[in-house]
């Protein structure tokens, strides 16, 4: 072994050892989950740590990107791989920037930075996909969807898709790319690549929405810019479409979606299920093990997670952008439960621009009546949005505005009958605050 290699191994071992000490200290003092800080410190010691760790994954890395559904899809795919007997590394807390990816890989290594896993599943923030593809060199890339999310940070979806296409096109020819065929932008992306491309999507027209929703992002042809003709939409701009101008059309999904049961509530979780199943099949997982894993699946914190608080059922539905919130509202309105808590924050992880709430179809939530409690850093913005959703002030709606989150939760539980479920719709940091208030545990 040469001198340079010895120095590299020493720096790798030192970086990992220091990071693991930081992790132990943070968790021992109950300061959080230590999902980001260890990676940040370790990368200062060894800047190439992401590449060094990624190269040690035996069978390859599955990279999962998209606006919504990354965490649920990641956890479901891990369940399928573990059912087959594989060892899997995963950034399970959802820390999906570079420091979080490094931390997750170090979590599965020993003190000198030796990694002993078959696969690593890394959910990656859509804005850094192009940056991390080269050091990671993924075996499979899952492209779930692209919606407007935190415009103050990301910009529009077409700019992101162009960066993805350019970066993915430089990868090895045997890289497998799995895009969502129902998303016109991602379907077009897949059609431009020379790598192996396998599509997933819904094939159930009976689940079309009655009309294209207000929070729609991409109804124009990504090839020529003409308006797409939709046979129907499943959510936002995801559906069955063709371009009457240039002939661009939805790609054919590899699976018949009605043949697969979905995890958790909400149509968006059918997409997550299909994405994970398609990837598992590409990895050669036995279909029996895939089907066995789905009913065993346990949701991540805040993603349709169900808790029992003082004998009452609570379901947390992360709601961080227009499309996601419209879908969680659909879950609420299709239930018989009459109490809902909405918590709106505007911290860095949420996106500081909350104007997106005006693209949410809150009218559907308000019109059904019941009790709505609002809280969070931007409680009055949300309260105003709900007021504007009312046809009149004398409808059967009980709107409660409560600045203090813990009191808001207490009030919501008091208004929830024992035989019903309290739905909580929080933004990302609000979800962390809600879970800490309900369970006493931090997830930071």
From TrEMBL:
<feature type="binding site">
    <location>
        <position position="221"/>
    </location>
    <ligand>
        <name>Zn(2+)</name>
    </ligand>
</feature>
<dbReference type="GO" id="GO:0005524">
    <property type="term" value="F:ATP binding"/>
</dbReference>
<dbReference type="Pfam" id="PF08245">
    <property type="entry name" value="Mur_ligase_M"/>
</dbReference>
<keyword id="KW-0436">Ligase</keyword>
<dbReference type="InterPro" id="IPR036565">
    <property type="entry name" value="Mur-like_cat_sf"/>
</dbReference>
<dbReference type="GO" id="GO:0008360">
    <property type="term" value="P:regulation of cell shape"/>
</dbReference>
<feature type="binding site">
    <location>
        <position position="224"/>
    </location>
    <ligand>
        <name>Zn(2+)</name>
    </ligand>
</feature>
<feature type="active site">
    <location>
        <position position="353"/>
    </location>
</feature>
<feature type="domain" description="Lipid II isoglutaminyl synthase (glutamine-hydrolyzing) subunit MurT C-terminal">
    <location>
        <begin position="318"/>
        <end position="431"/>
    </location>
</feature>
<keyword id="KW-0961">Cell wall biogenesis/degradation</keyword>
<dbReference type="InterPro" id="IPR043703">
    <property type="entry name" value="Lipid_II_synth_MurT"/>
</dbReference>
<keyword id="KW-0862">Zinc</keyword>
<keyword id="KW-0479">Metal-binding</keyword>
<keyword id="KW-0133">Cell shape</keyword>
<dbReference type="Pfam" id="PF08353">
    <property type="entry name" value="MurT_C"/>
</dbReference>
<dbReference type="InterPro" id="IPR013564">
    <property type="entry name" value="MurT_C"/>
</dbReference>
<dbReference type="GO" id="GO:0071555">
    <property type="term" value="P:cell wall organization"/>
</dbReference>
<comment type="subunit">
    <text>Forms a heterodimer with GatD.</text>
</comment>
<dbReference type="GO" id="GO:0140282">
    <property type="term" value="F:carbon-nitrogen ligase activity on lipid II"/>
</dbReference>
<feature type="domain" description="Mur ligase central">
    <location>
        <begin position="64"/>
        <end position="279"/>
    </location>
</feature>
<dbReference type="GO" id="GO:0008270">
    <property type="term" value="F:zinc ion binding"/>
</dbReference>
<keyword id="KW-0573">Peptidoglycan synthesis</keyword>
<dbReference type="InterPro" id="IPR013221">
    <property type="entry name" value="Mur_ligase_cen"/>
</dbReference>
<comment type="function">
    <text>The lipid II isoglutaminyl synthase complex catalyzes the formation of alpha-D-isoglutamine in the cell wall lipid II stem peptide. The MurT subunit catalyzes the ATP-dependent amidation of D-glutamate residue of lipid II, converting it to an isoglutamine residue.</text>
</comment>
<dbReference type="GO" id="GO:0004326">
    <property type="term" value="F:tetrahydrofolylpolyglutamate synthase activity"/>
</dbReference>
<feature type="binding site">
    <location>
        <position position="243"/>
    </location>
    <ligand>
        <name>Zn(2+)</name>
    </ligand>
</feature>
<keyword id="KW-0067">ATP-binding</keyword>
<dbReference type="GO" id="GO:0009252">
    <property type="term" value="P:peptidoglycan biosynthetic process"/>
</dbReference>
<keyword id="KW-0547">Nucleotide-binding</keyword>
<comment type="similarity">
    <text>Belongs to the MurCDEF family. MurT subfamily.</text>
</comment>
<dbReference type="InterPro" id="IPR018109">
    <property type="entry name" value="Folylpolyglutamate_synth_CS"/>
</dbReference>
<protein>
    <recommendedName>
        <fullName>Lipid II isoglutaminyl synthase (glutamine-hydrolyzing) subunit MurT</fullName>
        <ecNumber>6.3.5.13</ecNumber>
    </recommendedName>
</protein>
<comment type="pathway">
    <text>Cell wall biogenesis; peptidoglycan biosynthesis.</text>
</comment>
<feature type="binding site">
    <location>
        <position position="246"/>
    </location>
    <ligand>
        <name>Zn(2+)</name>
    </ligand>
</feature>
């Amino acid at each position: 072994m040469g001198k340079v290699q010895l120095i590299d191994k020493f720096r790798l071992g030192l970086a990992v050892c220091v990071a693991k000490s930081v992790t132990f200290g943070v968790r021992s003092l109950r300061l959080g989950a230590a999902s980001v800080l260890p990676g940040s410190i370790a990368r200062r010691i060894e800047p190439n740590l992401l590449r060094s760790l990624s190269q040690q994954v035996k069978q390859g890395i599955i990279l999962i990107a998209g606006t919504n559904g990354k965490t649920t899809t990641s956890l479901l795919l891990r369940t399928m791989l573990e059912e087959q007997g594989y060892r899997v590394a995963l950034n399970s807390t959802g820390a999906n920037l570079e420091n979080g990816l490094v931390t997750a890989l170090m979590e599965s290594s020993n003190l000198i930075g030796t990694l002993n896993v078959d696969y690593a599943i890394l959910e990656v923030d859509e804005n850094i996909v192009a940056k991390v593809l080269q050091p990671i060199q993924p075996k499979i890339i899952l492209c779930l969807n692209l919606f407007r999310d935190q415009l103050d940070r990301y910009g529009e979806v077409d700019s992101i898709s162009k960066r993805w296409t350019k970066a993915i096109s430089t990868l090895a020819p045997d890289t497998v790319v799995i895009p969502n065929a129902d998303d016109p932008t991602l379907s077009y992306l897949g059609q431009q690549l020379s790598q192996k491309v396998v599509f997933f999507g819904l094939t159930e027209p009976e689940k079309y929405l009655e009309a294209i929703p207000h929070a729609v992002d991409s109804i124009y042809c990504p090839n020529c810019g003409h308006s797409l003709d939709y046979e129907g939409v499943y959510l936002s701009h995801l559906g069955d479409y063709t371009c009457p101008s240039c002939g661009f059309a939805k790609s054919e999904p590899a699976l018949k979606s009605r043949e697969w049961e979905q995890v958790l509530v909400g149509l968006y979780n059918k997409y997550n299920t299909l994405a994970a199943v398609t990837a598992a099949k590409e990895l050669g997982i036995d279909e029996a093990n895939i089907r066995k894993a789905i009913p065993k699946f346990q949701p991540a914190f805040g993603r349709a997670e169900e808790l029992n608080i003082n004998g009452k059922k609570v379901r947390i539905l992360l709601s961080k952008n227009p499309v996601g919130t419209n879908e969680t509202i659909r879950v609420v309105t299709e239930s018989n439960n009459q109490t809902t808590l909405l918590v709106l924050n505007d911290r860095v992880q949420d996106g500081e621009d909350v104007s997106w709430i005006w693209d949410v179809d809150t009218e559907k939530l308000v019109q059904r009546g019941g009790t709505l409690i609002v809280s969070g850093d931007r409680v009055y913005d949300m309260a105003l949005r709900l007021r504007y959703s009312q046809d009149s002030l004398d409808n059967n709606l009980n709107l409660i505005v409560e600045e203090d989150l813990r009191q808001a939760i207490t009030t919501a539980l008091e208004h929830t009958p024992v035989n019903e479920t309290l739905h909580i719709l929080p933004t990302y940091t609000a979800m962390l605050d809600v879970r800490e208030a309900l369970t006493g545990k931090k997830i930071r």
